[in-house]
Amino acid sequence: MRKPISTSVHGIIDYMTAGMLVTLPRVMGWSRNVTRLLDMAGASAAGYSVFTKYEMGVVKALPMKAHLTMDAMSGAALIGAAAIMDDEDDDVRMTVAGIGLFEIAASLLTRTETTLLTRMKNDESSRSASQMPRGDLSQQSMPVLPERSLKRGVSAGRQSKGTRRKSDESSMSADRMPVGDLSKQSMPVLPEQRLAAGTEAGR
Question: What are the residue boundaries of the structural domains of the chain, listed by start?
Answer without folding.
Answer: 7-109
